[in-house]
Amino acid sequence: ALAPSASHGESSFSPSSFPSHGLPKQHGSIACHLIFSPVEKMESKECDSCESLMDRIKEKMIHIEQLRKELHVKDEDIMNFKIKCDNLSLEKSWLEKEKSVFRTRAKMLEEENANLKSRLHEKHAEFLESQRLLDVVHQDRDECIEEKMKASKFYRNELKKLGEENEALSKENKRLRGVEQDVTEEAPEGELSFKKLLAMISENRQQTGILHGDLNATRQQMESIFQKISDLESQMEQNQVEFVMDAEDTVSESMSVLTIEWRYDITAVWGGEPAEQLLEQEAQFEMVDEQEQ
């Protein structure tokens, strides 16, 4: 039975020489039946049947190998898919945790945003209040500057009037001194009666008293003016208002005029004579009064 196989160039042939590799049992039984059939029935068809069987077996083996490779590839794909599923599950759990964290963070940001909005409203209200107070301060400053300008103008007018009065008093003093000198120079001794001399002395003393009264009143007015200026400056400092340069110049000019026009004493009023000499004259007048009495 194996001789025809050897004649075709095959040294040995058996069903076990071909691994089944998962080949169905029917194929093996058919092969065995074909191979070990009686020689009388298969002499004419043995070669063709063996070749066709070998071809079919080879095809089946190739197909089995392909299926095995595909199965291996599919197993690898399944493992990869399992790994991917595990990774996706881990990523899903991580995303769930991140989602919870993000929700908490979003809630915190919303609360912070609400706090910032409330603070912004408070700051805006404070800004409006500060703007209103600034407008009030500017209005008060303008009013104080206007009042200061009016007061400076009034004080300058008062100083001008006082200067005119001072000049008039100085002229009157000079006139009285001239009258006294004329009387002393023109009238010889012994010709003037005591009554006329006493009348002149009395008139001179009255004029001197009037002059002293005017000087005292002038000093009081000047002290009042200084007090008003001091009160106005203290009021300006309390209101924290900056002085305008024109107003400062006006006050400085007024103070300089005040210092120049009113820096005098009793010697300047009496034409520059020393006070001791005036006191001696008054003592002489008192002696004349005592002699008359």
Description:
The chain contains 8 helices and no strands. The chain is an all-alpha fold and 293 residues long. Helix 4 runs antiparallel to helix 5, helix 4 runs parallel beside helix 6 and helix 5 crosses helix 8. The longest helix has 141 residues. The protein is rod-shaped and about 200 Å long.
Quickly list its features.
293 residues; mainly alpha; 2 domains; 84% helix; rod-shaped; disordered N terminus
Mean pLDDT across all residues, rounded? Answer: 70
The total of helices stands at 8
Number of domains: 2
Structural class call reads mainly alpha
- Terminal Cα span: 202 Å
Order of helices and strands: HHHHHHHH
Q: Label the overall shape.
A: rod-shaped
Work out the number of β strands. 0
Strand content: under 5%
The profile of the biggest β sheet is: none
Q: What oligomeric state do the depicted chains represent? A: single chain
Low-confidence stretches: 1-37, 243-247, 254-276
Helix content: over 70%
Task: Please give the radius of gyration in angstroms.
Answer: 70 Å
Brief digest:
This protein has 293 residues and is mainly α. Helix content is 84%, strand content 0%. The protein has 2 domains: 3-9 and 16-73, no CATH class; 139-292, no CATH class.
Write the layout of secondary structure elements.
Blueprint: H1 3-7, H2 25-35, H3 39-42, H4 46-186, H5 194-238, H6 245-262, H7 266-269, H8 275-292
